[in-house]
Amino acid sequence: MTALLSVNGVSRRFGGVAALSDVSFAVPAGAVVGVIGPNGSGKTTLMNIVSGVDAPTHGEVLFDGAPVQGRPAHRLARLGIARTFQHIRLVPQLTAAQNVALALHEPEAGLADILLRLPRLHRIARERHRLSVALLERAGLGRVADSRAGDLSYGDRRRVEIARALAARPRILLLDEPAAGMNHTEKHALRGLIAGFRADGITVVLVEHDMDLVMGVCDEIQVLNQGRPIASGPPAAIRKDPRVIEAYLGAEDA
To answer: Which residues form the ABC transporter domain (predicted)?
Structure first.
């Protein structure tokens, strides 16, 4: 398969500390690729670089064959790179649907619509709400569309963030520990949701500590340790790789 995303020799230093060192891998279009590693291995730094939150010290990031490293996050979102964050970033006072609507690119109201309160403004508001509810339904959360985000369970708030990322109509979706804080039932629903992305042609990069989820949904897995890549391959190979077992999975999973 053709690579939609390529990370080539990416390094990131913060002063004298190397957070990433010469990381390279490719994400085929339509695949689900996992990135795992111990805490502090550079996973979130990598996600920040790919999504435009940060820039590499060395190396390049290619999206659909074009270099995108160093471009701001909002421009990458317009290109089709969407992301959720390790720490939830919803507005708790807004409803779930309103949080999702914040990420919709269209339809948008113009200045004249707002100042003159033209009838078109109300049509746009209704359409944005309809689209937001549809995205929440896709994430299995249609029932909470009009509930305040701050009143939702932790797992539901995680999925609202995913629905909001979908509002950007991404070609690739970067999920940073989406299963954190979820119970077994919520994780099962998340696994089905990610599988649905693959069926819809949305490429996924999944950073996650839940190995059952990673092994069950990913086509390929990249493993980092202390900022360096130590292994890559399909889940069955990663599970048996002695370097991965020593660094991360633990001997009991061998």
So the answer is: 5-251
